[in-house]
């Protein structure tokens, strides 16, 4: 079918477009995302090293594109059902990268792009969960890709919300009010993540891993040499513990079938 061919082609190409556009500043086009992030940094933003998770997500996305394009997987129900939402998320991530680098800022428009990408990633994650399929591709490519992508975009949505609010002047740059706003956003992020983990039951492993990595990065960022914000670090640590506890409980309550 033409639609299937288009889906397979998009899922093959878009991961590489996503990777290529991340390196536009290295080619002298636009502003690096690290500089953009630093310009509107808030206590909700994880330490820089935490963003290295994108390297894993990009690699899995490229592997997914190849896996689903192989003739042996042409009729895979898992590839067919996850293809369109993943293609949407890859395209939206590319749009976010290009827009942020060319404008040099993080605004509410980019926040909406992240939300749309998150919606696609969650669609792919729950679809994969409900489409069991044997094979190494399903287990080691689709499952970690959909989990890590949805998990990190969940965290990124709240990070973008805080940065966009700072850029728009909605949130103050310093003081008790800025800290209080960061704590509220972190608590909301943890609550949303815990709710999604609860819904995913024992399939939440990769999703939870991305969320926990994000909170570790937030704790580290707020206990760093250049920035010490104890309330924000404490809020992130409590949410980290909450997500971990819910993940552990759901996995124990829903063991693998014998």
Q: What is this structure, in a nutshell?
A:
This protein has 258 residues and is mostly helical.
Q: How far apart lie the N and C ends?
A: 39 Å
- Residues in β-strands, percent: under 5%
Largest sheet properties: none
Q: H/E order of the elements?
A: HHHHHHHHH
| Radius of gyration based on Cα positions | 19 Å
What is the overall number of helices? 9
| Beta-strand segment tally | 0
The proportion of residues forming helix, as a percent range, comes to: over 70%
Unreliable segments (pLDDT under 50, ≥5 consecutive)?
Answer: none
Protein described:
Keywords: Membrane, Transmembrane, Transmembrane helix. The chain crosses the membrane at residues 48-70, 105-126, 138-156, 176-199, 206-224, 230-248. It comes from Roseomonas populi. This is Tryptophan-rich sensory protein. This protein is an all-alpha fold. It is 74% helix and 0% strand. It has helices spanning 2-21, 33-39, 53-69, 77-103, 108-129, 136-167, 176-200, 205-222, 230-253. Helix 7 (176-200) runs parallel beside helix 9 (230-253). The longest helix is centred in the middle third of the chain and has 32 residues, at 136-167. The mean pLDDT is 91.
Keywords:
single chain; 258 residues; mainly alpha; transmembrane helix; membrane; TspO/MBR-related_sf
Topology, pairings included?
Elements: H1 2-21, H2 33-39, H3 53-69, H4 77-103, H5 108-129, H6 136-167, H7 176-200, H8 205-222, H9 230-253
Helix pairs in contact: 1-3, 1-4, 3-6, 4-5, 5-6, 6-7, 6-8, 7-9, 8-9
